[in-house]
Write a structure and sequence with these properties.
GO terms for molecular function: ligase activity. With 157 residues, this protein is α/β, with parallel strands linked by helices. The chain has one domain. It contains eight helices and five strands, in the order αβαβαβααααβαβ. The mean pLDDT is 92.
């Protein structure tokens, strides 16, 4: 067992995940407020898309601050590459292949060593998918929990 995993076992991290699609702004922000989230950790590759609606980066930062007193950080190292994303979304690829490629990517990036556990505490991984089942935000949370062993994941749906 790594020293980081040993040291972190007693410091349980509450980590939330949320997707913004199929949610009204009211539902989205109320879910964050009611859960006690302190910061959004944006794990999208493209956070300025016109499809994002209220979740476009500049608008989201404003709304989070004014409505919910929630901080914002964009961690692109937790996002898939454009190639991995396109193979799955645009070419209607297989989820299992996407999952394998994405886990290899974050393993190669060694996110368990480069991401500070402090950043994640009371944070919420944000992506677009409505549910976490076929979304990389769940894969990030699961991967880090496997390496650190101290994350309690709460999926806000």
């Amino acid at each position: 067992m790594s020293n980081l995993k040993k040291n972190n076992q007693n410091n349980l991290i509450n980590l939330y995940t949320i997707g913004f699609t199929q949610k009204t702004a009211e539902t989205f922000f109320e879910s964050l407020i009611n859960s006690g989230v302190k910061k959004i950790i944006d794990v999208r590759l493209n956070n300025v898309s016109q499809l994002a609606g209220f979740a476009k980066k500049k608008d989201l930062i404003y709304f989070l601050s004014k409505i919910a007193n929630i901080d914002y950080i964009h961690l692109i190292e937790l996002a898939p590459t454009q190639d991995i994303l396109d193979d799955y979304k645009k070419k209607k690829g297989d989820w299992n292949i996407y999952e394998t490629k994405f886990i290899k990517l974050i393993s190669d990036r060694q996110i368990e060593k480069t991401i500070s556990p402090d950043i994640l505490e009371d944070g919420c991984l944000l992506c677009s998918e409505a549910k976490p089942h076929n979304c990389h935000r769940r894969l990030v949370a699961d991967y880090l929990n496997q390496h650190w062993g101290n994350i309690k994941v709460h999926h806000l749906v």
